[in-house]
Amino acid sequence: MAQSNILVYLLRHDLRLSDNPVFHRLATQTDHGFTHLLPVYIFPAQQVQVSGFIQDGSPCPYPEARGTVSKVWRTGPHRARFIAQSVWDLKESLESVESGLVLRVGLMSDVAEALIEGLQQNQDKVGAVWMTSEEGAEERRDQKAVSAICKKLGTDFLLWDDEKYYVDDRDVSTPIKEIPDVFTTYRKSIEPLRSRPRDTLPRPEKGKLPPMVEVSRIPPQHDPFTMPMKYKELEESLLSPVREFLPSISSHPDGVKSAHPFQGGETAAYERLRHLIKEGFMHSYKETRNGLVGSAYSTKLSAFLALGCITARQVHHELLKYEDGTEPDYEHSKGFKEGENEGTSAVRFELLWRDYMRLCTKKFRHRLFRVEGFRGYDSGEGTDAGAKKQKWKSANKDDALPDQKPTPEEVAEIIQRFYAGTTGMGLIDASQRELIHTGYTSNRARQNVASFLAKHLGIDWRYGAEWYEMLLVDYDVSSNWANWQYVAGVGNDPRGEARIFNPVKQAFEYDKEGAYVRTWVPEVKSLERLENVFQVSTTPEEELEEAGLKDNIMVTDPVKRIEYLVEGKPKNSKRPFHRARRARRAAPGGGGHDGGGRSENQTSGSSQPGPGPGPGHSPDGSAAHRGSPHRGGRGGRGGGFNYGPSRRGAYTGRGRGFYPGYNPRGGYYAGLSPRGGYPVGFPNPFPSGPPPS
């Protein structure tokens, strides 16, 4: 190529052709000076297990892509497939406008160096390398590494603003260090939301992008890796190393469909968006968003947004066409040409929450991944002493306290059961099994799962965050990690550790007929009473025998029991970690039990803390902490009262059904409130929290 001047565009989470500022600039302006364009997508070896691309049996030059804490794969089969589909869709879209996409595996800096050096050896000039800026710690390191390579090789380097979010960074006047630590404060500074996004950018026309570099001149993938030429081979290379991610996985329930059956890519993203509007799902979104079953209760756009297959402002402007009545295809949709409605307003609210999670990542950076979270970082800037002192239970002996109960070995077993969905807590188990089999679970379920691990079990919340990173098709570094911090009480939730979900109460509220739990935990399908479906260990012996569950581990040794009021009395006792069924009971007046059946001494009027304190709209409802006038003040993270008439929802400030001024005879036990108790008595009903991911 005589007098060539090549632009290398390294794509990451900007997998779209339309509303892409880089492609738009190259297609609409001629002063950029580049003769050729080389779009490149790299499967990053530190995040994706790339050993499946090695065909000759050679060892992989990169360490396995596993989580730091849990050691699970960082990218599991569901997300790997969705990424592959999204990348391939972009490749085909670029080819349709006479361009293309080169696929590579490795570290971004290694691949960039090999490409630049290879092109230079062919006497081709690489004028610049462009990337879209991102805020994750690894993503920032990649940016620095590629910048250093470019400097060494005499090539310009440019970072573009990430424009896939709702409000453009350039339109936010608040310095990043001054971004409020409470979402509501930030939201009020941004409103009205409907007028904030910038216009979208059109899809480049055919032949308008600089021509693709000739295939014969593109340096090959470096050894020992081989890049497949067909999609099926690409998918198999990504999935083959990570298919086995648990020692034992429950079988997929017969006939059960995924709530997220969508393929990845810009094409599917836009089809999904238009379908949601045409079928009226955007209009009804506010009422349905807490659903658990089916594909229609939420937008399911989060996976597309995470990879940049679609932008938040594209969602906004498509909603405007419907609200303003400018798109004839939507004329039969409920609410057409009637302006913003509750559903579309709620969608915008959620898009802003995604923005906010990213800004928190930008503000706190590496603290996103620290166990002490945003609240516990080592500086004088609003350090939360409680968060700094918190010691989480861990399966790692080096991280655990010497006298940790349960022991690290016991915690490791609990974590495996938590992952596999055999805890005995119906809503938690159903969510975990759905996630294992489909790569998706609802926002409502996610909040309960996170709260259960972090606050009911007191286990290092990062075990859950890394599990979600592996399996969720819609994993996004900011949304996942910041939301886990939020629910675990170490993030930017103003109520912090005081917000706890009671998964039994939540199941009664959001799975009113038990359909969700019965679907994903078929073992309990035949049980008649919901309290048994939602907590199988409460089932009478004769019914367990009839259902074939008498010896099931969810019955004989549930990871946790949570008290919940049904028909006027609690259905089960509270224990931080449940002892095995028929094990020796504690003496009267005793408290909960650890994993080995040993009692934790608790006296009336006070108690020892239980075991601990886990993306998303308003978190609500949770376990109450109270003492029993009949059982010596046994504490726990359950809810309800053990006497008097039925008071469904009458929890100690944890749910929407709080009764002002109502004080149960047993009192409230500060010792069992999460780490430090409530500073001003029992809490009032709490405000809204994060929107769904």
Automatic annotation (TrEMBL):
Cofactor note: Binds 1 FAD per subunit. Binds 1 5,10-methenyltetrahydrofolate (MTHF) per subunit.
InterPro entries given in the database record: Cry_DASH (IPR014133), Crypto/Photolyase_FAD-like_sf (IPR036134), Crypto/Photolyase_N_sf (IPR036155), Cryptochr/Photolyase_FAD-bd (IPR005101), Cryptochrome/DNA_photolyase_1 (IPR002081), DNA_photolyase_N (IPR006050), Rossmann-like_a/b/a_fold (IPR014729)
Superkingdom of origin: Eukaryota
Biased composition (Pro residues): 682-693
Residue ranges, compositional bias (Basic and acidic residues): 195-208, 395-407
GO MF term (any one): damaged DNA binding
Keyword annotations from UniProtKB, A to Z: Chromophore, FAD, Flavoprotein
Domain (Photolyase/cryptochrome alpha/beta) ranges: 5-165
This protein's record includes keyword Transferase: no
Region (Disordered): 195-221, 380-407, 566-693
Family label: Belongs to the DNA photolyase class-1 family.
Protein name in UniProt: Cryptochrome DASH
